[in-house]
Amino acid sequence: MRSTLRRTWAEINLDHLAENYRKIRTHVGSESGFVGVVKADAYGHGAIHVSRVLQDLGADYLAVSSIDEAMELRFNGITMPVLILGYTPVEQVARLIEFDITQAVPCRDKALEYSREAEKLGARLKAHIKVDTGMSRLGFFCEGDCFRSGTDDIAKVCGLPGLDVEGIFTHFAVSDEPGEECLEYTRHQLDLFLKVIHEAEKKSGRSFRLRHCANTGATVRYPDTYLDMVRPGILLYGYGEFARELGLKPVMSLKTTVSTVKNYPPETRISYGGTYVTDRPTRMGVLPYGYADGFFRCLSNRFALMTPKGPAPVRGRICMDMCMVDLTEMPEVDQGSEIEIFGEKNPVEEMASAAGTIPYELVCAVSKRVPRVYMEEGKVIDRELLLRM
């Protein structure tokens, strides 16, 4: 659906996406494949458009969180392999098989359920084994005394009827963190993962066709983790210190406009709670951007948005649909002026730091009422609004 309003919008630069992909592939080398992580609507960037670019560029796999995300891709012309990283109910196995979707298998019980259901259908479900090497979340636990039982279970799963166990993977917990302790922990996770693979293959008499574990931090810093495929997440979209190391560019620029300009005398309380009081004659701009659009309320009085003439500090509490910025020193900025919330001139990393969070959360938080505007070669090629009308 197309928005009829020039209110607040997210520009998605597909040229930056393609350039980032190529740079990551160059960094990794030609021996390893590439998994494009497009869960959570491609981290807020639009999973369909991002996946089309990756498919055209020759990526090897896509990764999503749920069957609904996978089906969205299939119903919109994405034919390349798709891996579901999260849980899928056994009742959905028929759809997984019908639409050629790969399912992560985190434990023996789930594997047995999937196997029985696939057998009933007279078909095989493609699966990737998930190994818990230290994330302490999903996966076959193979640490310490559990190594033997864990690898026994993986080997048994590899031989279950109805399953085509194509791959095996794990997820690093601190590969993006600095320090010797995190380095050692990541090395331990990798060593354990490789030992699990060796033992499971020996016990099952089968080889895994795809082994993958390199997330964003590992893709940049740990070349020995590349194995058969790398699986960077936020790196592809050009945010964070690792993206800067590789010279990647942010794919999303979030923008709005000045809807109203008002002049206030000194001692005027601004917004809910009166947390900001003017100390001089103040020219205040009202922007149609609030916490319902993804502007965290904790940034009230703590952040500045970028005008054509420089940063304008946020004044008063951020509202559901609006916020206020101080334009006193910028007489040229007026009603209708374009404001960059975050992007190339106002990095999302700075907003994340001020909010005490990470860029992932901010780009994922851009709400469905914010239209995505897709750009190629400086031109708008499509617009998308997720609201139902």
Account of the protein in words:
The protein is of the alpha/beta class. It has helices spanning 14-28, 39-43, 47-57, 67-74, 93-98, 108-121, 147-158, 180-204, 216-221, 241-245, 348-355, 359-365; strands at 8-13, 33-37, 61-64, 82-84, 102-105, 125-132, 140-141, 163-170, 210-214, 229-230, 252-257, 260-264, 269-270, 276-277, 282-287, 304-307, 310-315, 323-326, 338-342, 372-376, 379-384. The longest helix has 25 residues, at 180-204. The N and C termini lie close together (8 Å). The model has no long low-confidence stretch (mean pLDDT 96).
Task: Put the structure in a nutshell.
With 389 residues, the protein is of the alpha/beta class. The protein has helices at 14-28, 39-43, 47-57, 67-74, 93-98, 108-121, 147-158, 180-204, 216-221, 241-245, 348-355, 359-365, and strands at 8-13, 33-37, 61-64, 82-84, 102-105, 125-132, 140-141, 163-170, 210-214, 229-230, 252-257, 260-264, 269-270, 276-277, 282-287, 304-307, 310-315, 323-326, 338-342, 372-376, 379-384.
